[in-house]
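Hey, quick one: can you model this chain's 3D structure?
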Amino acid sequence: MRNKILLVFLVCCCSFSMFGQTNEGYAFYIRAISSEFDPEFVESNEVLVYKGEDVKLQRALENSTIYAFRKEFPACLNSSLKRTFFGRSNNQNLVFELLNAAPHLFEFGEYKGDEEIGFLRGTSSIAPFFPNDYGPTGPPGSNNGTGAVLDQLDYIGAPLAWERTEPLGTSNIIIGISDAGIQTQDADFINKTTILTPSPAHKHGTGVAGIAAAEGDNSHGMPGICYDCPIYAARTGYGEIVKLAEAGAKVINCSWANALGCQSNTYNQTEQDCINYVTSLGAIVVAASGNVGWHCPNPGNVIYYPASYDNVISVATVGHRLEHPIDPADIRENPTDGAFEAFSVKDHVGFGVRFPGNDITVPPVVYKWFTHNLNSKVDILGTGAGVFSYGRYLFNGGVVEYVHGTSSSAPHVTGTIGLMLSLNPCLTFDEVESVLKLSSRNIDYVQANAVFEGNYGSGTLQTGKAVEMVYAMMTPGEIVYVRDQVFSRWDFILESAPERIEIENQVFKGSSTAHFKAKQSIELLEGTLLEPSLLTPPSGEGPFVLLEIDPTISICSTTSESMNQFDNSQEKRREISFDLVVVPNPSSGSFKVQIDKELGSFKYQLFDFSGNLILEDNKTNTNSFEIRENNLKQGIYFVKVISKGDTATTKVIIY
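Sure thing. Here's the predicted structure for all 655 residues.
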């Protein structure tokens, strides 16, 4: 049967599951003092009625209509999150009333916002490796899958990455998919997918999982980016992200958001705490930036979450298919307004362009309605313009469809991180983010992108170059190349044992910082500009570039023994047996941390809001310790205590 080819927009709407499913009223988070607190509600006429015996709580609730009230993270190992409830009520003051009326039950609350929760609409010298289901752009013998064009794999250099990772065989890096259900009966998923939270199979979840990690080189379907990586699947939501991380997922894809059209989401500290906790477990969260376009009245200022939270890699869309100049055969006339337009133009932000005055001899412009969400929180661009949807293929009877959407952009980054960690499981979040950006393609040269400057991240994902950089960082005799980029922001860290680093035609300026370590040498070659100076920063303040030679750096081992130190599998989970209290909090920088039991021996760490380690020390035979850091900047910090495999984390505010 001949395949039909369609060009469609990726649109998918779905909501988080909840007891008393509704989006009415005001949503909030509230944290109980005790993890044992679990109030009894019964459902009556689609609302919840409190049936517990606490008189004060009963009085606080009696004049409010409760649509939802449940533990948001019931299986979480983190004490604070485990005690956190999600609620929704018609009373916009309920959080304050509960905190005032029942201080014996609740210690913290915040409003989530009245948003609807839904999916987003969604140069190497090595020989490339092509799996046998690569598609028609590969060499002979590599088109044994759907036959769909997967030319975005050419654009990001996936075959170069696979040449480095294919000899490893099956990967131990688990890809987490927080999304709708996956069609696990398909051969690309059946023997590699573990369902943590059951959900009906859906074309959106299946399509996203397919891009990230569909089984490859099996003469079926399509190859995912990290096609040897196993998949853990859960639903959408912050509790589901936590569940995936605690189960052992090392990179988690979130092709969804709290979408509000042209209106930004509400920032929530509870959700940021979830992300920080997941990061502390060694998991990396990747999220789609959203599909709202530059046509909004506040372009560049629409902020969606989870993509815009700290410790999340936010991904928007870039074109990959059409070369410059655009072949007239690829230009179409819009049937509504007669404008000449083309889609998925290589290195152009968004998914389509138009020609001023319908003159195809002049450079095209990126049409504002042909963009996805762009803002200063975006870290990198992934291919999401005219990308084959394996989910639609399976659910629509073998019809080949190509879609636009950041839902497709994000899993290309997720799969790339899976490949990077397959080579080097010791990479930290900061190093992964640094490698992705340092290896990305600079697209500032495209005239049409100028209007979006500062809002499309570091450039476009280059999977082959990212994996090659990781390979060079841990292979004796190899050189790590940092080239051809201009950065005026972000913090870059490379310290996982590169022997040699060469920096060429590279600019670090503005508020950017760089901290590179090498065993043998760091060479500054032609075209390199380091501003403001090549000096260690005074007291760690201000932009800086710090280059260090350290012959003692050890190379990360990829043996099964070393992998076990990063294993957060279900078999190793256990309840956290202690909690932390900071006094005073807020603090000027000198404070005491109290532990609710004697631990014997433990290690404590202090992190800033971005997850950077400030200090650490070891203690024995005590249930308290003091931290005196009076030079800390104002902001939020986290104290983490580790004892015999258990951890507890609490927040401290420095004023």
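One thing worth noting: Residues 1-22, 114-125, 532-540, 559-576 have pLDDT under 50 and may be disordered.
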